[in-house]
């Protein structure tokens, strides 16, 4: 459900609830929200924020990153640090920084008492995902660097004997004319 519709629905329900006073009925006392409902709302907030980050326009992305960074600057721990770590780890935006996300998420988990159980679980899962991503990237770089050294002489000759692509900017006619002239 889109946030605008949710806000409208909440306002409509709040308006209907206030009509009970017109009929001189005693308004019912609303029960305090349970811990589980508060945690579910927090988790929903994290997830919808990440969705807005990865699907938003560049201006929206910059705004979300700036807000998360400002909150992190005020308190380098707890939910603010978790949100900033999640933002840095999220794909599809220019401020993505998995190395920094790994550091922030580790800092966050160093003080687990500042997070509720759902936030701790989210931080652990995301940190493990970022760790795996960085391990894979490191291994890939290592394999790419070793590639030519590990290849045998026949493989190196095959790579050297491959036809080279034509220089950019020349058309097919120009290449044919050069072949015909040569």
3D structure, described in words:
- There is one protein chain.
- The chain has eight helices and no strands.
- By secondary structure, the chain is mostly helical.
- The protein has a domain at 46-147.
- The model has no long low-confidence stretch (mean pLDDT 81).
Give short descriptive properties of this protein.
182 residues; mainly alpha
Into which percentage range does the β-strand content fall? Answer: under 5%
Low-pLDDT residue intervals, each spanning 5 or more residues: none
Q: How would you spell out the order of helices and strands?
A: HHHHHHHH
- Sketch the major β-sheet: none
Question: Based on CA inertia axes, which overall geometry fits?
Answer: elongated
Q: Number of helical runs? A: 8
The count of β-strands is 0
Mean pLDDT: 81
Radius of gyration: 28 Å
Note the gap between the termini: 67 Å
Helix percent reads over 70%
Structural class call reads: mainly alpha
Give me a quick take on this structure.
By secondary structure, the chain is an all-alpha fold. Helices cover 72% and strands 0% of the residues. Helix 2 packs parallel to helix 6, helix 3 packs antiparallel against helix 4 (78-89) and helix 5 (98-110) packs antiparallel against helix 6 (117-150).
What's the arrangement of secondary structure elements?
Blueprint: H1 3-17, H2 35-55, H3 58-74, H4 78-89, H5 98-110, H6 117-150, H7 153-161, H8 172-181
Helix pairs in contact: 2-3, 2-6, 3-4, 4-5, 4-6, 5-6
């Amino acid at each position: 459900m889109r946030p605008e519709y949710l806000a409208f629905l909440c306002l409509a329900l709040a308006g209907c609830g206030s009509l009970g006073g017109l009929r001189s009925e005693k308004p019912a006392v609303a029960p305090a929200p349970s811990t589980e409902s508060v945690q579910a709302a927090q988790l929903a907030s994290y997830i919808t924020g990440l969705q807005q980050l990865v699907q938003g326009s560049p201006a929206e992305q910059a705004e979300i990153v700036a807000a998360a960074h400002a909150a992190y600057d005020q308190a380098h721990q707890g939910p603010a640090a978790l949100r900033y770590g999640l933002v840095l780890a999220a794909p599809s935006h220019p401020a993505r920084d998995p190395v920094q996300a790994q550091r922030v998420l580790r800092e966050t988990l160093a003080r687990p008492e500042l997070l509720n159980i759902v936030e701790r679980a989210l931080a652990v899962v995301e940190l493990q995902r970022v760790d795996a991503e960085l391990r894979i990237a490191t291994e890939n770089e290592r394999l790419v660097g070793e590639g030519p050294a590990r290849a045998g002489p026949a493989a190196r000759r095959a790579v050297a004997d491959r036809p080279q692509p034509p220089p950019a900017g020349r058309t097919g006619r120009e290449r044919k004319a050069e072949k015909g002239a040569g």
